[in-house]
Design goal:
By secondary structure, the protein is α+β, with helices and mostly antiparallel strands. It is built from six helices and 17 strands. About 40% of the residues are buried. It is found in: Cytoplasm.
C-alpha cells in the first residue's frame, strides 16, 4: 500500500485549500483499509476518509488521511427493469451519472456536476433537483472500527437531508444500487440541469460546493445574500458573486480565513433572521495528535 508522509492537502480538495497531513494512505482493497485503521489506533492519531475532497477544507492534520481513489471496482448487471450496480467507494460519481444518461436510469443523472466519489456522495447523502443518492441504494458494505466488514441493507441505515450514518458507523467500502430504466430519454433534462448549474454556480472556480445546508424553511443562499455575503471576502477566500452559498479560493487562501468568513456569515444570518446555519462543508483540522478518533463521525 502506498503511504506518504507530510503531504500538502491543498491539491486533494476542489477548493485548493489545505495544510499538511502527517500521513496519507492510498489503499487498494478492504484489507489495506483495515491496515490504515490499525495505524491510526496503534499510533493514537485521528483518521479522516477522503474522496474527491469536494466538500472538504483542510487545515493541518496530525493524523492519517485515507484517500479512496484506488478503490474503483465497478460491476454492472442487468436486472428486470433496470441495472444493479456495485461500486467501490472511490468510483467517481460522474461514472454513475454518465451511465444514467446513456441507459436512461432514474434519478442519478440529476447529480451531474458533483465532483464526488460514490463513497463521499453516500456519506453526505448528496442530492439536487429533488433527488438524493440514497433513493436507489440497496446496501452498503463498510469496515467497522473494530475491523469487521459489514453489509447492511438500505432499510437498516438512517439517511436524511445531507446526512448518513457514515463515517460514524464505519468506513464505506462499496455500495449496491438498483436504478430502474425509464422508457424515455433523460438527456434533455440532464442538459438542462447541467446548464442551470453552470449559470447559477461558480463551477469554473476552485470551490467546495455548498457551504451551508438549507434551513427547513428557507434557502441558505438567499439568507446569505440578504445579509450582504455575496462577494464578501476575507483574505483570499470569498463568497461567490454568482451564488452566495459558495466559497471560492481567489488564490492562496488559507484555512484560518475560511473559519473567519464562515463564522462571520453564521453570525450575520443569526443576528438578522434568528436562524443558525449549519455547515455542509467539512472543516477538518487537527494541529496536534489528540488520540485515536474518526474526524467527521
Amino acid at each position: 500500500m502506498r503511504l506518504e508522509k507530510e503531504i500538502a492537502l491543498s491539491k486533494y480538495t476542489t477548493i485548493g485549500i489545505g495544510g499538511i497531513a502527517k500521513y496519507m494512505a492510498f489503499p487498494e482493497n478492504a484489507k489495506q483499509v483495515k491496515e490504515c485503521l490499525k495505524i491510526a489506533q496503534w499510533e493514537g492519531i485521528p483518521l479522516f476518509v477522503l474522496g474527491r475532497g469536494a466538500n472538504t477544507i483542510f487545515g493541518d492534520f496530525e493524523g492519517i488521511v485515507i484517500n479512496t481513489k484506488m478503490l474503483r471496482d465497478l460491476k454492472i448487471k442487468e436486472q428486470d427493469g433496470g441495472l444493479e450496480i456495485i461500486a467501490q467507494a472511490g468510483v467517481p460519481l460522474n461514472t454513475l451519472v454518465e451511465l444514467g444518461v446513456r441507459e436512461n436510469l432514474e434519478g442519478i443523472y440529476r447529480l451531474v456536476g458533483f465532483p464526488a466519489t460514490v463513497g463521499g456522495a453516500i456519506a453526505m447523502n448528496a442530492g439536487a433537483f429533488g433527488y438524493e443518492i440514497s433513493q436507489h441504494l440497496k446496501a452498503v458494505k463498510f469496515l467497522s472500527y473494530e475491523g469487521e466488514e459489514i453489509l447492511l441493507n438500505r432499510e437498516d441505515l438512517n439517511f436524511s437531508y445531507r446526512s448518513s450514518p457514515f463515517p460514524s458507523m464505519g468506513i464505506i467500502l462499496e455500495a449496491v444500487f438498483f436504478f430502474p430504466k425509464l422508457n424515455y430519454s433523460v438527456y434533455e433534462e440532464y442538459e438542462r440541469i447541467k446548464s442551470k448549474r453552470k449559470e447559477s454556480q461558480p463551477i469554473q472556480m476552485p470551490t467546495a460546493g455548498s457551504t451551508f445546508k438549507n434551513p427547513t424553511t428557507d434557502s441558505a443562499g438567499r439568507l446569505l445574500e440578504k445579509v450582504g455575503m455575496k462577494g464578501y471576502r476575507v483574505g483570499q477566500v470569498a463568497f461567490s458573486e454568482k451564488h452566495a452559498n459558495f466559497l471560492i479560493n481567489l488564490g492562496g487562501a488559507v484555512f484560518e480565513d475560511v473559519v473567519k468568513i464562515i463564522n462571520h456569515a453564521k453570525r450575520r444570518v443569526f443576528e438578522e433572521f434568528g436562524i443558525e446555519l449549519e455547515e455542509e462543508v467539512r472543516l477538518v483540522e487537527s494541529s496536534s495528535a489528540y488520540g485515536w478518533k474518526v474526524i467527521g463521525a
